[in-house]
Amino acid sequence: MRNSKVLQFNNAYIQDEYRKKQIREEENRKKNRFMGSILILAVFLFVLPTYNLVESYNSLKQKEQQLVDLNNRYQELSEEEELESSLVKKLGDNDFAAKYVRAKYQYSKEGEFVYNIPGLLPK
Q1: Is residue 60 exposed (0-12), middle (13-18) or buried (19+ Cβ within 10 Å)?
Q2: What is the mean pLDDT of the chain?
Q3: Is 8 helix (H, G, I), strand (E, B) or coil?
Q4: pTM over 0.70
Q5: Contact indicator for 121, 104 with CB cutoff of 8 Å
Q6: CA–CA gap between residue 9 and residue 17 (Å, rounded)
Q7: Phi, psi (5° rounding) for residue 118?
Q8: Which long-range contacts (CB under 8 A, 24 or more apart) does 55-62 make?
Q9: Residue 77: which H helix or E strand, with range?
């Protein structure tokens, strides 16, 4: 093996510069870690409220859809209630009640024939 012709000085100045370089590198590492932790904290502080905002928006849209569905159901039930109340008023008349019962439940007098026509009677 050949001897290297490069000679490295190892005096106080070189050692002092080497220590200064190590201190600067350590300070840079600490600074980078600090900035990284600040960045992670900032991202966390922005992501969490954004996630909550998106969840609230989705919940709001779901509630709005539920409100629309319930309003539609209310309209259907209101119409059905109107039909039922009109039937109740009509059933107050004895002639109509007799005709309705005879047609709906197929009651007939002796010798009488009853023919059912689908859709003729209220349900």
Answers
A1: exposed
A2: 89
A3: coil
A4: no
A5: yes
A6: 12
A7: -60, 140
A8: none
A9: helix 12-91
Residues 106/116, Cβ–Cβ less than 8 Å: yes
**Calpha distance 78→72 (Å, rounded):** 10
Confidence of residue 79 (pLDDT cuts 50, 70, 90): very high
Distance in angstroms (rounded) separating the CA atoms of residues 101 and 107: 7
Place of tokens 């019962």: 101
Structure tokens given for 76: 């259907």
Measured in whole angstroms, how far is the alpha carbon of residue 15 from the centre of its chain? 65
And the tokens for 30? Answer: 């600490």
Q: pLDDT tens for residues 25-60? A: 999 999 999 999 999 999 999 999 999 999 999 999
First to last CA, the chain: 110
